């Protein structure tokens, strides 16, 4: 249900005697401007209401901080080499790397990968069967199958070329003591010891996704080129929301392409972890019956592969992986 948790919380606070300062605001991430589209207007009204309930002392000037917040992580380079996890391009080795990063997932072989559309079809659809016998898993009607993708090696090399970073560098990722937040940091990288940057880009960073406004709010701090900085500030502003939609969401422009467009904006590794989201599992409805194939669920997947308006080839991270 749409914003079910927010609605329940709002109703519960009202039942406990709370008084609304302003109408409930509900953001939709599928809007053209993302959830910011509703949030921006709601925040304007929030500050108005707060100034009435708790007016600032007379003569107080609001402080608008424009400083760069501390990164959540500290990334230190501990060496350079070609560790076992990164030494080859064999599929088996890549899967071992994936398993090291995502121990909460099971490795399962694909028993069948069959195209079920003709050559004249606008979109290719594939039938995949996953063999769960080796991981002792089963499923029931109504279950979903979550697949953890990894980036293509070609995209990883393109990203490293644009960012001018060495894929064979060995880094250690730790929590930043200056970052004060009660929100726990993801345990995916912290505390796992030295790891090759190549592996992080392969299985962790979703740099083929589309940036949101927060990305540009941070990116503007990492360029001294005034022309590029002015453009980035436009994209990160409330007034530039429509411009951001046309530039990013409408064209499905990726983090990789944005960094190409702004060659002088190069954040350090520690901030890349804050600016680029992690690769998340993609969920698919199971299209087979557990009575017929209790250990071999099937999924039916439409491949994402098209040419954008900017004449760039677009492909889904997970469908490319499949």
UniProtKB/TrEMBL annotation:
It comes from the Eukaryota. The keyword Oxidoreductase applies. PROSITE patterns: FAD_FR (PS51384), FLAVODOXIN_LIKE (PS50902). Keywords: FAD, Flavoprotein, NADP, Oxidoreductase. One of its GO terms (molecular function) is oxidoreductase activity. Its cofactor is FAD; FMN. Residues 1-47 form the Flavodoxin-like domain. One of its GO terms (cellular component) is cytosol. Residues 103-322 form the FAD-binding FR-type domain. The keyword Flavoprotein applies. This is Sulfite reductase [NADPH] flavoprotein alpha-component-like FAD-binding domain-containing protein.
């Amino acid at each position: 249900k749409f914003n079910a948790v927010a609605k329940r919380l709002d109703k519960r606070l009202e039942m406990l005697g709370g008084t609304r300062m302003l109408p409930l605001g509900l953001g939709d991430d599928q809007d053209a401007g993302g959830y910011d589209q509703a949030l921006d207007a709601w925040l304007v009204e929030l500050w108005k209401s707060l100034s009435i309930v708790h007016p600032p002392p007379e003569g107080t000037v609001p402080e608008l901080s424009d400083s760069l917040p501390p990164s959540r992580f500290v990334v230190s380079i501990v060496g350079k080499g070609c560790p076992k996890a990164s030494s080859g391009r064999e599929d088996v080795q890549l899967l071992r790397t994936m398993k090291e990063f995502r121990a909460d997932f099971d490795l399962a072989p694909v028993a069948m990968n069959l195209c079920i559309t003709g050559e004249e079809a606008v979109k290719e659809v594939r039938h995949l069967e996953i063999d769960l016998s080796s991981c002792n898993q089963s499923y029931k009607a109504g279950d979903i199958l979550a697949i953890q993708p990894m980036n293509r090696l070609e995209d990883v090399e393109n990203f490293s070329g644009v960012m001018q970073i060495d894929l064979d560098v060995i880094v250690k990722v730790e929590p930043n003591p200056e970052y004060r937040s009660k929100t726990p940091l993801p345990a995916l990288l912290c505390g796992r010891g030295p790891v090759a940057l190549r592996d992080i880009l392969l299985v962790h960073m979703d740099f083929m996704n589309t940036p949101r406004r927060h990305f540009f709010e941070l990116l503007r701090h990492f360029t001294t080129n005034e022309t590029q900085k002015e453009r980035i500030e436009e994209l990160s502003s409330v007034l530039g929301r429509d411009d951001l939609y046309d530039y990013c969401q409408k064209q499905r422009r990726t983090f990789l392409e944005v960094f190409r467009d702004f060659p002088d904006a190069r954040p350090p590794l520690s901030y890349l972890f804050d600016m680029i989201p992690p690769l998340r599992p993609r969920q698919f409805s199971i299209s087979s019956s557990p009575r017929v194939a209790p250990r071999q669920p099937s999924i039916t997947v439409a491949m994402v592969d098209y040419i954008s308006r900017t004449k760039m080839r677009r492909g889904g991270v997970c469908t490319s992986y499949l």
